[in-house]
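hey m, so remember when u said the tokens were messed up on ur end? i reran from scratch. heres the input so u can diff it against urs
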Amino acid sequence: MNSLKKFDTNFYSTNTNLIAGVDEAGRGPLAGPVVAAAVIFDIKTYHPEITDSKKLSQKKREYLYDWITDNSLTYSIDIVDNLTIDEINILQASLMAMKNSVEKLSLLPNLILIDGNKTFQHSIKTISVVKGDCKSFSIAAASIIAKVTRDKIMNELANEFPMYGWDKNKGYATQKHRNAIFQFGESIYHRKSFLKKLFYQKQQLEIFNARSTK
């Protein structure tokens, strides 16, 4: 048993036998949805390779995705689109997705462990865990489910808008992605609230360059 599983095990008690780990993927990208997942395991269920999804290769994440979905007591996914992100901001959209993922579970947990330093209001006790995807087995599993799900979504959207390279950058602000936005404009899947900062930075850079050439 590794330290991630031990972390979760410390919360088990007579009144706490179902712990939901919750995490999201996609807070930072310029395009696409934010995706959250919630996972509940039996206290004895364990896999030594489960850790923060960002530390795993795509192939390993996809293998563990299948293992988690086959071996968890229950798991669920929620997706909040870019329009909602623009409407309520990315923090609130992330919390909404995480809360909705818990609500979709087929079993009612006794405790909810949430990655990060924020929680959502719930009748069930919630605990925020900073860098939880590196500390908690169930949160790490949720991070894998959320990441694999979102990557698949971005791969599908890349077929519709290939010029942005979403199959490679997953919507993050790589140089190629930024250049494509400046060349082709924004798509229906871009987060306008995020692009305001990008276009402002471009404008400031152009002003600076223009002054430098005088």
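this time it looks ok to me. The first strand starts at residue 19 and ends at 25. if urs says something different then somethings off w ur setup not the seq
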